[in-house]
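User: Some background: our group keeps a shared notebook of sequences we're curious about, and every so often someone picks one and asks for a predicted structure to add to the entry. Today it's my turn. The entry only has the sequence so far, pasted here. Could you supply the structure so I can complete it?
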Amino acid sequence: MKFNVLVIMLLVGTLLSSCASKKEILYLQDASKFDNSELSYGTTKIQPNDILRITVGALIEETAIPFNRSAGGQGGGGGIELIQLEGYLVTNENSISFPQLGSISTKDKTVLELEEYIKQMLESKGLLKAPTVNVRLLNAKVTILGEINSPGVYTFTEQNITLLQAIGYAGDLTINGKREDIKIIRELDGNRQIGTVDLTSGDFLNSDFYHVKPNDVIVVNPNDPRVKSAGFIGNVGTLLSVVSILFTTIVLITR
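Assistant: Of course. Here's the predicted structure to add to the notebook entry:
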């Protein structure tokens, strides 16, 4: 009887040690101290191999036609083919070839800065009067892996999305995700950065990793209870064998 009680206590203790606490699960637990804080927006620079959609408008619509690409009449190609037809591929030298303006440098420019530059060039060369220019990144994507409900690669066209929005695209973290240790792998200008974000603290709202950048990789590791649980379940056969041997030994000794 004492042995059975001991085994039950051992199992209960193991299960309790595998439970996640409320503090490990809740997001932004101290967010109130950031109320009314000034918003900051990411300034994503255009990178080689980006594909840009550039839409030009003018007071007389017909005059803007030569400056706009259209996939119309190209057949029912797939999504990637459509992007390539509509967009301008940024070369490894950080440039694009634009109608009547020739080669345009995109180095160290954001999409907003490129919009303004093209607009000024069209006006200064007398090609269009009071033009409007809109630039969008067509192939921006983020990869989310690990303890996430729908891991995978997600595309976005917004100029600024936050880490929480990206996680929302993937259906949020599972209950087993380690919210205080989110890893973000980022490559910019040939350099690799690895950042750590704590989603349980509001401090990350002022972090460089608050906004997601194109091609970021977000890794959600399992929390400690999940790791312990995985180890326990994976060795349950061994545990039962040990318990069985101990039980048999005790029975033989106490006869």
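Suggested note for the entry: The two ends are 14 Å apart (CA to CA). The CA atoms of residues 79 and 85 lie 10 Å apart.
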